[in-house]
Amino acid sequence: MHIKSDAEGPSVLEDPVAHLWRGTVALRVVTFLFALGNVAVHATGYERQWLAWAVIGVMAGWTAFTTRAYSRESGRQPWVVLADLVVSCVLMSLSPLAMTDLQLLANVPLLTTIWACGPAVAAGALAGRYAGAASGGVIGLCTYLNRGAMSVDLVRDVVLLAGAGFVVGMASSTARRSAVRLAQALRTEAATAERERLARSIHDGVLQVLARVRKRGMELGGEAAELAELAGEQEVALRSLVAASPVESTVDGESDLNPALQILATQKVQVSTPATQVMLPAVVALELTAVVREMLSNVDKHAGPGAKAWVLLEDLGEQVVVSIRDDGPGIPEGRIDDAEAEGRMGIAKSIRGRVALLGGTLELQTGPGEGTEWEVRVFRVGGVR
């Protein structure tokens, strides 16, 4: 992930969990030094000293390799962590061959001792809490197989290994989510600043011209009045577009329905939305916006040239309700079924079909001279089916 920032801060954020990898490298080096000291202290009592020192030599080389790999973003690969786990378990398995039975019974530390915890921490930093806990569990199982007996100390070590991997994994997942949110916030900030700049430019130019055309056309009357009405509609639509907040998406793929509906406002369409965000899965917000567009298109086509429409968005917690009402002549009884029979599928497919896909409900209230009101109700639980 690459995030640009100002001159006072870091220019690029290479990896949101880089600090965890630096800690993993430090842990690898420190635990190797501990293992080296452990072998030096107990070497005279080993059955095969040469094997113990050979294991230490391999550990030194592998520590150098993993230190180099984990210090670079390109080296933090699943195969490296998996190989680290395998090498650690293999080297640990050589302990019974180098140590005496008396040393094993006396709970003398294995050759690898706490050096073997490295893969659990690395797995957590790479793939999250479950991978870290699983790696810790594998190392704990290998420890048990080499000890050959269960003890309180062994159970404690297994719990600590799995817990360390789990905690580091939680930290890595949190850091990655925070980095994504930071990148999103920076993009939103940049988009908002650009929108404000454009809004000032449009207000000083295009909107003033449209307002002038509308005013002058209404004064002249006739065909100029028709042009004035069109200019007024475009002025309202442009003001709504400039005033609407940019559509945002979250890490979980949700977006705010408010701005998507706010830009539908015109001189004949009034849109009312909550002051707070109405977050929905992006696909649900997109389909709901398409439904409202289709309904407003029907108002424009069938409700008459002077008809007005009102769009109301309500967030009821577990469900979201969108109401679209107009003051047109209403829909005659049976007209929707007749239109569907004639092959005109606007309501059947574009409206009913979309709402059914979202798992929502659609209600219609209309009558001669009473206008038309649609109510779309979509539940947050369930989503697109």
From TrEMBL:
Domain of life: Bacteria
InterPro entries: DUF5931, HATPase_C_sf, HATPase_dom, Sensor_HK_TwoCompSys
Gene3D superfamilies with a match to the protein in the record: Histidine kinase-like ATPase, C-terminal domain
Pfam families reported in the protein's UniProt record: DUF5931, HATPase_c
Keywords annotated in UniProt: Kinase, Membrane, Transferase, Transmembrane, Transmembrane helix, Two-component regulatory system
Membrane spanning stretches: 25-44, 50-67, 79-98, 104-123, 158-175
All copies of domain Histidine kinase/HSP90-like ATPase, residue ranges: 286-377
Example GO molecular function: kinase activity
GO biological process, one term: phosphorelay signal transduction system
Coiled coil: none
Domain DUF5931: 20-182
Name assigned to this protein: Signal transduction histidine kinase
Species this chain originates from: Umezawaea tangerina
